[in-house]
Amino acid sequence: MKEKLSSFVASFGLPRLIISAFLLALFILAPIVGVDLPMQITNVINRFSWNAVLVLAMVPMVHSGCGLNFGLPLGIISGLLGATLSLEFGFTGPMSFVMAALISTPFALILGSGYGWLLNKIKGGEMMIATYVGFSSVSFMCMMWLLLPYHKADMVWGLAGKGLRTTISLEGYYDKVLSRFLQINIGKISIPVGALLLFALLATAMWAFLHTKTGTAMTAVGSNPVFAKAAGIHVDRIRMLSVVMSTWLAAIGILVYEQGFGFIQLYMAPFYMALPAVSAILIGGATVNKATIMNVILGTFLFQGIVTMTPTVMNSVIHTDMSEVVRVIASQGMILYALTRKTEVTR
Amino acid sequence: MNLKPQGAGKSILNILRNNTVPIMFIIICSICIPISGFSPAYLLNEILTRLGRNAFLILSLLIPIMAGMGLNFGMTLGAMAGELALIFVSDWQIWGIPGVILAMIVSVPFSVVLGFICGKLLNMAKGREMITSYIISFFINGVYQLIVLYLMGSLIPIKHSSIKLPRGYGIRNTVSLLNMRQCIDNLLAIRIGGVKIPALTLLIIALMCLLIVWFRRTKLGQDMRAVGQDMQVARDAGIQVERTRIISIIISTVLAGFGMILYLQNIGNLSTYSAHSQVGMFCIAALLVGGASVDHASIGNVFLGAVLFHLMFIVAPQAGAKITGDSMIGEYFRVFVSYGVITMALIMYEMKKRRQKASIGEQLALAQREGSRHE
Q1: Residues B356, B360, B363, B369: is their CA dihedral positive or negative?
Q2: Chosen from A70, A120, A136 to mutate, greatest number of chain B CBs within 10 A
Q3: What is the ipTM of this complex?
């Protein structure tokens, strides 16, 4: 029995176990300390629906052996370009969301191919360079948001008449356009079915893709590039495809996030957005070179659960908001754990 | 490896190629300086101040590079240790130079513990030291916040309410270091015209450089270089690779702690929760601007980098404002350049590593072919 337990801990991972236990404790504690549980559950589900696609964006690159996509901000920038251009062109309501997704696609394809080409040149050092590609592109776009000729009155600074604002309200555009679609209310709990459906659609597509010939090739490239090359797979092309997919999913992911959140955040906002997504998929049980759709779902739920529940529950228990510290330690600790595991170093 | 004699033209090209980043920065600065309209005396003054402020911190990066562990993004840990020490010292109300020296002494145990943890973790993540040290700095930042924001004043005794938050525990957002502000810089300062030369600070930095030069020649320093060259060979030669790597990180962390204290005595106040967050990035960018790479850095790189990088930092916002009429452009430009430089340096390093690997493979194949021909 003891052996079984220890082998379970070893396979599940101690940090993951601690985080799950912590979240469980939060859920049990919540009604005892007088926190509105249905409200909290609604929040967790909502935040899950905002973030799940961004976490899903991690999957292709992990599969092809490019590691965790710390360069997620690059895809986010494609999404932001799509969003702002869609608004600038005067689309409103649900149409603006569709157009934002359409416009961001070519940007994601172009930026993603460039990024993939770069990552093919520097195999082995992907993660560090990805981080800095993300940072440089965000800081480059900071200049562009000011310089590009946007003119729509509710997007630019009022006084100067140019330069985009740091946050742009989506009211009248695609604010909650997915969340409200087919929304179900059970008692106090409301479920944003539309957003969940889109995630389900993308996740199923991803699952199906990974079972196609190209998808299997991708997994082969990730687990053993030499073998894959010997089997006649174009390693570089597959890696490039995975990077483009990841970048495009990040672009769509940020649009889904925005429609839930209700605002477009520009300038330095995308800077650290890769880290929550990375730690979410790791908490869900993924490793640096293995990730499944289940990891995405479980990880996003656990991560967002902790992010939503800690502040309220902690506040009621000890009357201080330690949530920020808990979030930082849990998420960074999880990434650190994944990076330092012995089995994954020998790649 | 290349024994072929090279023409003069090729060697100039090589120099250009190896120093792309510094040359680019010299060009940027020489364009921006006239546009910004700052007087030479002002610029010289600013640069000397910033050199005194930052050079020590940048020097702390050299030793891990020597040990082949890349750019130590974990130097932030040292910075946090220095800040912890400064919080304690200012609570004990010890000011001036004794305060600075005491803070340095107090920071050592913190730095050693943090450096040890960092070194241990990096040994578990060989080959991806940089991203790991980068995440470690975030992780320890969380722990730092836990200690400073919640444990100080509740578990760890803090007497003076001037540095505590009104709620009775936790440290305020800024801790004033007014009583030790520039105490080292001003002692023995030389003023020529409008330019103040912080002689003592520069002297300390010079001493540190000598120490590093000496350290390279010691047994430990040689061991580190051997580990940096090839871990396997070093291990076969009887060097304790893991131990050597941990020591190199500990030294770097301790130096970063000292550097942070020097930095903050110049600034004169401590932003408790944000002072350390950008330090690693700026120091690494400065070092790379000086022409260093991930696997090679010299003391010359530190000074050239500090001067060029900070020159850009001073003139870019003003020049940007003059050109585009928007002061924010310059601000964003310098942030972009800092990140861009690091990105470029990382890319060039990885590409060089791949090229070397490929050429070693080719040589091996050639040797094998020749070997079989002899048989």
Answers
A1: negative
A2: A136
A3: 0.83
